[in-house]
Design brief:
single chain; 19% strand; alpha/beta
């Protein structure tokens, strides 16, 4: 009797075109909350990806290589070395003074010459290694060109500088030892630098001033194009700087990139924010994130939550450097 009634109900639902609606509603009731749906998206993109279009394999950079270097201390830092298909070397930031030897070893392994060195902002965990290299005689590597753009010293002094003015002034003193290296200070947004015939690096903005997190929010973003891919480096842009970058960029499509360096060491609490990240929608995320940030109790820095968001926005590969150098080819 029960089976007959159920069969009759199914027939009625099918007759009125509602059977699929009933099935969907039942599935949603079983799945429950939006958190489950979000987890489903995350796992489908990160854990159950299949087929060539869903995977990032060696060869993705078409002969180029990107090395995201591991911190040589317990501190967070950001150091990226890009090798073009023709062998040109581009460094973005470089890390702390403690990271100098590992950085030098990496550069020397690729010929010992840096064609282009890009600095995002004057914090020691981004330019300390370069400061030490410039202060070393003889210089351990050859550097053709250094590009940087900072606010006036007085702006950093009046803003929230966290007592780190010496990071800036030490670098400025070290630049006096940069004989034989071309120094490019304060390039305009849109300025393009080339390395050979297969690298183009574009300055995306001039430094922005913010009362809060003044050094971080003054970060200059760079887009590097090589190996048929686009890489966007954000330094430590926080929410104020990210909002200024969006406002200063009329054509938002120029911010899209295949590969993205997650701002402020991957923090989901004080990083660039959802509006910018969801616009960029990279396939590969670079995480200059130390182990203690990944493992923070209750995800205290928001790194893990941000990783899941990036997956929902299309990130198919995480390049991490918390336990070893992250390599992308």
């Amino acid at each position: 009797m029960v089976k007959t009634l159920l069969d009759k109900e199914k027939w009625i639902l099918r007759k009125h075109g509602l059977w699929m609606l009933f099935a969907v509603a039942l599935a949603c009731a079983i799945l429950g909350t939006g958190n489950v749906a979000e987890a489903s998206v995350y796992h489908s993109k990160k854990d159950a990806a299949s087929g060539p279009a869903a995977e990032i394999r060696d060869g993705y950079l078409n002969g180029a290589e990107l090395d995201l270097l591991k911190s040589q201390s317990d501190g967070q830092m950001s150091s990226s070395v890009i090798i073009s298909p023709s062998g040109g070397v581009i460094v973005v930031d470089g890390g702390r003074a403690e990271d100098e030897q590992h950085l030098v070893d990496t550069i020397n392994a690729h010929g010992g010459r840096v064609s282009l060195w890009l600095i995002t902002h004057p914090h020691d965990d981004h330019l300390g290694a370069l400061t030490k290299i410039l202060d070393t005689n003889p210089r351990p590597v050859q550097i053709d060109k250094i590009v940087y753009s900072f606010l006036a010293n007085g702006d950093y002094q009046r803003g929230e500088n966290q007592g780190r003015m010496a990071n800036l002034t030490d670098f400025q003193k070290a630049l006096k030892n940069a004989g034989g290296t071309e120094l490019v200070s304060s390039p305009a947004a849109g300025t393009v630098f080339t390395v050979g015939a297969d690298v183009k690096a574009t300055v995306m903005n001039v430094p922005f001033y913010a009362d809060r997190a003044t050094f971080n929010n003054s970060s200059v973003a760079y887009k590097v194009e090589t190996g048929g891919r686009t890489m966007l480096f954000l330094g430590d842009l926080s929410r104020e700087g990210a909002a200024a970058l969006l406002a200063a960029t009329p054509d938002k499509s120029v911010l899209k990139a295949d590969i993205l360096q997650m701002a402020h060491h991957g923090s989901g609490i004080d990083g660039a924010g959802d509006e910018l990240y969801s616009l960029i929608r990279p396939s590969v995320c670079l995480w200059p994130t130390p182990t203690w940030m990944w493992n923070a109790e209750n995800d205290g820095y928001g790194v893990n939550a941000l990783e899941k968001k990036m997956a929902s926005w299309g990130c198919r590969k995480d390049v991490r450097c918390d336990t070893a150098d992250g390599i992308l080819r």
